[in-house]
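Notebook B, p. 112. Complex prediction, attempt 2.
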Amino acid sequence: MPHPVPPYLPPEQTTLPRYPVPGRSPAPHLVITVGAARRPPLHAGDRLRVIEDAADAEALLDAELPTMVTGWRILVTGTESEVLEVRSAALARGALDSELDLRPTDVDDDLVGVRHRTVYCGHCQARFGAVVAIGGPVRCPGCGCGLVVAHHHSRTHAAFLGSPV
Amino acid sequence: MTLELQVDAVSEPCPGYRSVAFTLADGGPPPAYPPGSHLGLEWAPGRWNAYSLTGPSIAPERLHITVALRPRGSGGSRWVHRLRPGDRVRSTMPRNGFAPVETARRHLLVAGGIGVTPVLSHVRWHSFWGNPFSVLYVHRPGAAPHRDELRALCGDRLSTVTGRRAARAEIHRMVTTAPFGSHLYSCGPPGLTAVTERAARDAHWVAARIHSERFDRRREPGRPFRAVLRRSGRTVDVGAGESLLDAVARIGVATPSLCRSGVCGECLTPVGHGAVEHRDTVHAAREGRIALCVSRAAGPTLELDL
């Protein structure tokens, strides 16, 4: 199967998500944990909200953001797929990257290794989960197309691009 | 690209301030521009100053500026105050380093003195589109150009204060009660913009929500340093009271420049090596560049891609 991205491009220069660990801002945080993720330590003034499914983030943010003032941060923990879906909902509601603190629980230093990833089919636009490496093959459950997971992650779709081959 | 302007009308909104309305010399319609834009006007051969546009930015019939008289300035404001109807002026196209962020949940505007000019153009835009906004106008007693116009556009969304302490209290109130997703814009003397930025940072605002434009011709002196111009293979020693832009011009290396206040972005130059003390308001640092007109080396030498 052909490699969708020339191997000379280092992963750092792609849109593959990375999770720098900033020092925690002294600002008050809206702390969102998704599913079974362990709750991070809370500071005075923080607000903890637990959602079962990342899809609930939209309703949660619609309820919480109007009660927050500028200066608040949003800390999200859960699996990478969940955290990125919450980020997409937060960005769509006006949050900025610098206000988001993402703490995925299933990510190691290997940007491109095999793990559970949400993939967006470039042919039929289905979103689905798969255990796959960047550059690895998957079959789209929507249209049956053979896809290669590209070195591209969409912040809007919260998914890696599956490029038809 | 330059525009040939003709002075259509002049007026004095209050003592020490001059408003000038320009038309295009060829009679065509002036260009539309985003709010917060300025014109660079050539007030002496090769000398350009930037002045914020105050009028309607959508399909403008004329281009409006208001300029405070700086009796001890280098001469640009005195020149504006001498303009008469019919005078011809060479100008840049409108340019912008201070536009509103369209995704903002609310726009908070802080104007100090003549810093009201770009804020007025923001307010026209927000009123037109129905965007949520509020304005704080800090001015000296009896010197508040455009206040009545602002009042008419803003209603109770405008508050005006005259004292420094009252200004601080009002700024604090604004930045601690702004709904999540707000953006803050301040324009005025460096003291006011610094107070505003600090208040927002203290309230944990991230930098991307804080925007400011300073109009200040005085350049703080700094330590002397050596600039190495990589492309032209030249070296120049920059004196304590000299700007990097002037030093580079002194040895005959041509660089574009316009506002000489770190607001227009015309003189931004890529930095090779060396730490920079950034003094501009166009975020040159984010792009690894330096505003030659106001910024300096933070160490003994600075290498530039020039």
